[in-house]
């Protein structure tokens, strides 16, 4: 080999080494991240694990995924500072609003903010055991529907989805379970007929392969009255044409409900540098995990709903801006949502100063009244009464 070629090869090797070093340093992530998620086998858990595998391979970061059976259990480690983020469901929204299970002295409205959320071919909808004889929303009366202790994400969604068919809680038999996983097992064990789930959940797949089988309640967008009833209870849902999941035939489309899931989020107080690094890694290394598990492709940057019901974390905004995805409209919407969180936080502080009653029901009633007054005064939608 000539001297010039030797020098060229050496320079090439140095350039490659520098490029590799730059790639490794492009996003500064901590050595360990702790993220909470739904239970093992759930789609949210699986997607978090897929992201974790990418972080380990590309950045050497170990991401611990802690499974938890309800929203309170998922948020507890974040509130206590033992976890940095969570792959949550719509319980994120209830916690922001300080309603349902979060309308208690131990919680109240939480300043939760988005990292990225997954929107894909799947639905977040009302499933049914295929042997229960439920062909449409009109057939739900008298059927057994699963709910979960401490999980407004499941319970509020179930109530909203049965309302699509014109039914109330008294029209179905609500069966309570200790965890989401236990509820889904309850379908297999013939303890319930109706359940709320992601169409691509691993637990939904288990129901599909059980003797009972699985189906999904059709919720066509053309049923305006049904959707009005549903969104009055759960405004975060919107109509969706689902094309993938348990029980779907090849090429089949089912009109279901949906909201992004999982919702990767963190407290607004979480270090912006850490959230920026995590968001940037998820955006720039998307190709490394997009095919790892069903639904994780929904984390793609261009699929983000930048004007949904939750604000984005400042670190995520920075990463989305760098990726040329953030817009002026998104910024304006985000500022409005941050103002809503501030309004709720101030209302909560004011309520606690009133020496509210210790009784949980009375405490909740008093808070909801003050919450509604504060939002109304600020010219914002109350949404929960």
CATH superfamily of the largest domain: Periplasmic binding protein-like II
Tell how many strands the DSSP assignment holds.
12
- The helix/strand class is alpha/beta
Shape by Cα distribution: globular
What is the H-and-E element order?
A: HEHEHEHEEEHEHEHEHEEEHHHH
State the domain count. Answer: 3
Can you tell me the residue ranges where pLDDT is under 50 for at least 5 consecutive residues? Answer: 3-25
CATH structural architecture of the largest domain = 3-Layer(aba) Sandwich
**Ends distance:** 80 Å
User: What percent strand?
Assistant: 15-25%
CATH top level class name of the largest domain? Alpha Beta
Major sheet summary line: 5 strands, mixed
Radius of gyration: 23 Å
Query: What is the count of DSSP helices, taking H or I runs of 4+ residues?
Result: 12
Strand order of the largest sheet: 2-1-3-12-4
